[in-house]
Amino acid sequence: MLTEKPKYILTARPINSMMELSYVKRGGNMFSYEVLNSLNDLEMLVYNYVLEHKEEIKYMTIRELAEGVHVSTSTIVRFCKKLGCEGYSEFKVKFKMYLKEEKKKQPETDLNEIRNFFETFRTTQYQESMEAVAGELKKAEHLIFLGIGTSGILGKYGARYFSNLGKYSQYIEDPYYPIVGDMGKTAVIALSVSGETEQVIMMAGRFKEHKCRLISITNKGASTLGKMSDHNLNYYVSERMVEDEYNITTQVPVVFLLESLGKRLS
């Protein structure tokens, strides 16, 4: 006998309120790509601070959070509303539930985030960004890849991949590499997870001064590198650090973006 599919997700723990019921029904995703894309620069500062101080946020008043981020309390309220909360109190409740859900599904987090990235990649808005970047690369006579550490390894891969496709490309890791004259026919692809890597920002700035078109691939658009770029592609996954020093954030989206751009040129 066929039965109607339940409207709500069944959980092993009791649901204590209508707020929690609504949260579970939506899958507990507070920070979707659409939400993050709607945040302005000040609200993105709040988002970054919240993720960097997950445990402290539980006990902070709205004024303490505003002082910690150096923004007004009205900015905090706007941030909360964009996350679907009526105010800061509701945000704190939902954020606690979000952290509980994240701990439960930790082993699957990377896979879920990669799935979310691919879903975002299919959207019209993202495809338009890809076409705009591909147009810049087609016009360029020369491509230069920048990156440090893991991003540097991917920069080398990108330079070889595009060279295999017949586009003259090179990778530069020396922040003091000499740049001479007008390079208006060159496009620079800068890779950085945080978008705040000092050496990459310095190199990218020097190339921009010589009229290169700057394209960046970063985890978040609201970064120094993202803001100074002519075009920025971002992927929004959780950053993972080992011993607060070694970045092990998944780079699957970066490889996919590089290969997708390359195929648009062939």
What does this structure look like?
- With 266 residues, the chain is of the alpha/beta class.
- It contains 13 helices and 7 strands.
- It has helices at 18-25, 33-38, 41-52, 54-57, 62-69, 73-82, 88-104, 109-121, 124-139, 150-164, 198-209, 224-228, 252-265, and strands spanning 142-146, 169-172, 186-192, 213-218, 231-234, 241-242, 246-247.
- Strands 2-1-3-4-5 form a 5-stranded parallel sheet, sandwiched between helices. Strands 6-7 form a two-stranded antiparallel ribbon.
- Helix 3 (41-52) crosses helix 6 and helix 9 crosses helix 13 (252-265).
- The longest helix is centred in the middle third of the chain and has 17 residues, at 88-104.
- The radius of gyration is 21 Å and the shape is elongated.
Major sheet attributes? 5 strands, parallel
Low-pLDDT residue intervals, each spanning 5 or more residues: 1-27
Tally of strands: 7
Helix amount? 40-55%
Write the layout of secondary structure elements.
Blueprint: H1 18-25, H2 33-38, H3 41-52, H4 54-57, H5 62-69, H6 73-82, H7 88-104, H8 109-121, H9 124-139, E1 142-146, H10 150-164, E2 169-172, E3 186-192, H11 198-209, E4 213-218, H12 224-228, E5 231-234, E6 241-242, E7 246-247, H13 252-265
Parallel strand pairs: 1-2, 1-3, 3-4, 4-5
Antiparallel strand pairs: 6-7
Summarize the structure.
This protein is of the alpha/beta class and 266 residues long. Helix content is 53%, strand content 11%.
List the defining traits of the structure above.
single chain; 266 residues; alpha/beta; five-stranded parallel beta sheet; two-stranded antiparallel ribbon; elongated; disordered N terminus
